[in-house]
Design goal:
Layout lengths: L14 E4 L7 E2 L5 E10 L6 E11 L3 E10 L5 E2 L3 H6 L4 E13 L2 E10 L5 E10 L7 E3 L2 E4 L1 E9 L6 H12 L2 E2 L4
Antiparallel strand pairs: 1-3, 2-13, 3-4, 4-5, 5-12, 6-11, 7-8, 8-9, 9-12, 10-11
Length: about 180
């Protein structure tokens, strides 16, 4: 089994397991295990829901994949962040090294990296892919930069260490094309 951390959506109040049949996210490739969950991000002091979160987690003998889709509700936006900022804020990963930004794959920003999984101190090689959704009126400007109505973040970690970045990127692209994603 892969030595990777489960990448949870820390800002969600809680993620509840749901059936993957008809779920917002899907994967058409072979897998050993597939699980889906959904949750909400609440406003300050427990006020109205400000965003919904959908997450699919897939594992096979060849890779581990987790994809999280966040959709903001009325008057809420996700600040624009780079893949590096996203990985650095992930509490499941430490000692991030060998950072390699790559060309866009199917519209997603991509970077390869090595890290230590905090749950077992194993060294993992992974990729992050991110897409900020566009809305008719966006992106919206925040004091810290642009904001978006949707954000899709995926972590892909192959079971074997891929020495050549080209092989890693090809493997990632083969997985991305099998994802069923919400319209952005």
């Amino acid at each position: 089994m892969l030595a990777v951390a489960r990448v949870a959506c820390a800002e969600a109040d809680s993620l509840a397991s749901v059936s993957c049949d008809g779920f917002a996210l899907g994967y058409s490739g072979p897998s050993d295990k597939k699980s889906c969950s959904t949750g909400e991000i609440s406003g300050k002091a427990g006020l109205a829901t400000t965003a919904t979160v959908s997450q699919i987690e897939i594992s096979s003998r060849d890779f581990y994949l987790v994809v999280t889709y966040r959709e903001a509700k009325f008057r809420a936006y996700f600040p624009g962040r780079s893949p590096r900022e996203e990985v650095n804020s992930n509490s499941s990963l430490t000692a991030i090294s060998n950072w390699q930004p790559k060309a866009s794959i199917r519209g997603f920003e991509v970077a390869l990296f090595d890290a230590v999984a905090t749950h077992n101190n194993a060294i993992v090689s992974c990729a992050i892919f991110m897409g900020h959704g566009r809305s008719l009126g966006g992106p919206y400007e925040y004091p810290g930069g642009p904001g978006y109505k949707t954000l899709l973040t995926g972590y892909y970690c192959p079971a074997s260490i891929m020495v050549q970045a080209d092989a890693f990127v090809n493997s990632l692209e083969n997985v991305i094309v099998k994802l069923q994603l919400p319209s952005q």
